[in-house]
Design goal:
two-stranded antiparallel sheet
Length: 289
């Protein structure tokens, strides 16, 4: 895990513009938003899926960077006053606090564009059609039928009581879509990845994405700000529907265990029991749980 985190950090260092290039403040803020923090769960999933099907790690470096750039952009925008209005992210001031609102908006825009630049200007597949599919996969995961759409539902649901299926629909899009894409894209870096493997990996990604958000909801209610690196209890104070507000802490924990078992059952159908994906599943589902 540490080796892969270091590897994607180096890759991100390489693709992000340096502060010596104009506009220097924007580039400084982009690097502030991306480097030196976070668990890098999405890149870890991309590396593990790629390793499972024999993908070239140099290709996965770039795919992992792309998904992390999309994730970082979403955090910068989510933290803005017009969205969640948060002041702490990854244990340090959010971008709009450290710089200003306008810079934070441009940081998100620039990271989003850079993700697709990285994904399209490098040879990541031997077949051009496969590489187009990779770009489309990330675009769907980031857009209105993926992460952005899930965030829109989240904002519209403030003060409302959602059913469990409605909550699941929201989180499958808001958090799960990019996690699923991370698994898919890592595997798509291998020319040998077959349709069956990709289907199973997608099923695993869906369950892992839902579980990640479920555990996040529990931690938001039960963990400290120091542990989280962001403001604890923010969802409750903002009157947002979460698994904890709908099910309570204990039933949410029980559901997380069920999802973990489901993820492992999918991995058992893959070569080597899913390899390192099983380790990452344990990490996702047992974070300070």
């Amino acid at each position: 895990m540490l080796e892969r985190q270091g590897r994607v950090e180096a890759a991100l260092e390489g693709v992000l513009p340096g502060v010596e290039h104009a506009p220097s403040q924007l580039h400084s803020a982009m690097r502030y938003a991306v480097l030196g923090g976070g668990k890098r769960v999405r890149p870890l999933l991309a590396y593990a899926a790629g390793e499972l099907v024999g993908a070239d790690p140099r290709r996965v470096d770039l795919v992992a960077s792309s998904v992390e750039l999309i994730h970082a952009y979403s955090l910068v925008h989510d933290d803005l006053p017009c969205m969640d209005d948060d002041r702490l992210r990854r244990g340090k001031p959010t971008v709009h606090v450290e710089y200003d609102d306008a810079t934070a908006l441009l940081v998100g825009d620039s990271l989003h564009s850079l993700a697709f630049q990285v994904l399209t200007e490098n040879a990541l597949a031997s077949d051009a059609t496969r590489q187009l599919q990779m770009a489309a996969t990330l675009a769907r995961a980031a857009g209105s039928r993926g992460m952005a759409g899930g965030q829109a539902i989240d904002l519209q649901s403030v003060g409302k009581r959602l059913s469990v299926p409605e909550l699941e629909f929201m989180h499958v899009h808001k958090t799960g879509a990019l996690i699923r894409a991370s698994v898919q894209l890592g595997a798509m870096c291998a020319d040998s990845a077959g349709a069956v493997d990709l289907e199973l990996l997608d099923r695993f990604g869906k369950v892992a994405g839902l579980g990640f958000q479920l555990v996040d909801d529990v931690l938001d209610a039960a963990a400290s700000t120091a542990t989280l690196g962001k403001t604890a209890g923010k969802d409750a104070s903002d009157n947002k529907p979460t698994y904890v507000t709908v099910l309570g802490v204990e039933r949410s924990r029980k559901l997380a265990i069920e999802l973990y078992d489901e993820a492992l059952a999918v991995l058992e159908q893959l070569p080597h029991g899913g390899g390192r994906l099983g380790d990452i599943a344990r990490f996702i589902f047992h974070r300070e749980f």
